[in-house]
Amino acid sequence: MARKVKKKKKVIRKFVAFLLMVFIAAFAYRTIIALGNHYIFEKEYDDEILFKIEPDPSVSISSDQLNSPNAILIRLKDHTILMQKNSEEKIYPASLTKMMTAIVAIENLPDLKEEIKLTNSTFQGLYEADASLAGFQPGEQVKAIDLLYGVLLPSGAECCVALADQIAGSEQNFVKIMNQKAADLGMDNTHFENTTGLHDENHYTTVKDLSILLRRALQNDTFREIFTSSRHSTQTANKHASFSGNSSSLRIRHSAQPANKHPGGITFYNTMFEELNNQNIIDGEILGGKTGYTDEAGLCLASLAKVGKQEYILISAGAKGDHNSEQYNITDALAVYNSIRK
């Protein structure tokens, strides 16, 4: 009798174990299906911020309607990718590179008021490569903050090289820091060869990687302040009021002493706002951006916009055209942001 009871208990334990295994398997299956149907979690940065990929019906435009062959749209609040088009395809970033140059410089400059001297070697190869320049000259003493504005607004290559030399001793050493930063951020399909975005076969990224960079960089107050500025003047050492972006709101800007080669100062204008030519989105505002172009990269744009109460970033690359043609990177941004339903 005791043997029968023992045997019966053994059968019950096996049955319970079987039911438990079935429950675990069913739960795992439902979890996998949910992830497949709704979103994919990915680890981002060393602080484990998560973002999700979720085609969203609130965006009415199709990626096929874009001029740019590569694009990604992200809602910043919850890091949701609302639309993407060949977002992990290799691209050449052109001057979108300068977003990395700027954030690395900001993070490694102990004093933004520090004066940095531009030398003849700063300009070596830039004229020959037809690089975009902010307008500084060899021998000029320029404050670091003005060089940062020169990097992101007029896309000044001499500003990139000057900051790199000051921080790391050479552009090559600075690029090593850029690549380490990219690795730290999880930009796994990115490699930099220079600070300026001048074309090099080994200088590449993806729009998805650039979205990781921009999301992180915008968390830095100095970067965001520069990125969202429509202009910056070096004319006075005092604070002065200026308008930022296409907004009617008044902001306070910090400007530097007149440079020794420009006693009247220099005023920089953001190339994106110039190309927008007073256009903007219907139910919001394009807050800031960085353009890029080379023959190989095509027309590129990284932008930040507010639609309703939400902020979004859009990275696009590879659009046909040049500086003299219609700016298809700009028209794509306007179309995408206007397609977002609040």
Task: Describe the protein in words.
With 342 residues, the chain is an alpha+beta fold. It has two domains: 2-38; 54-338, DD-peptidase/beta-lactamase superfamily (Beta-lactamase, 3-Layer(aba) Sandwich). It is built from nine helices and 13 strands. Strands 1-2-4-3-13-12-11 form a seven-stranded mixed sheet, sandwiched between helices. Strands 5-6 form a two-stranded antiparallel ribbon. Helix 3 (144-152) packs across helix 4. The longest helix is centred in the first third of the chain and has 36 residues, at 2-37. It is globular. It starts with a helix and ends with a helix.
Which descriptors would you attach to this protein?
single chain; 342 residues; alpha+beta; Beta-lactamase; 2 domains; 7-stranded mixed beta sheet; two-stranded antiparallel sheet; 9 helices; 35% helix
Distance between the termini: 73 Å
Query: Which fold does the CATH topology of the largest domain refer to?
Result: Beta-lactamase
Strand order of the largest sheet: 1-2-4-3-13-12-11
Mean pLDDT across all amino acids: 83
Short description:
With 342 residues, this protein is of the alpha+beta class. It has helices spanning 2-37, 97-108, 144-152, 157-168, 171-185, 207-217, 221-227, 271-276, 328-338; strands at residues 41-44, 49-53, 70-75, 80-85, 115-117, 141-143, 231-233, 240-243, 250-253, 267-269, 284-294, 298-307, 310-319. Helix 2 packs parallel to helix 4 (157-168), helix 3 crosses helix 4 (157-168) and helix 4 crosses helix 5.
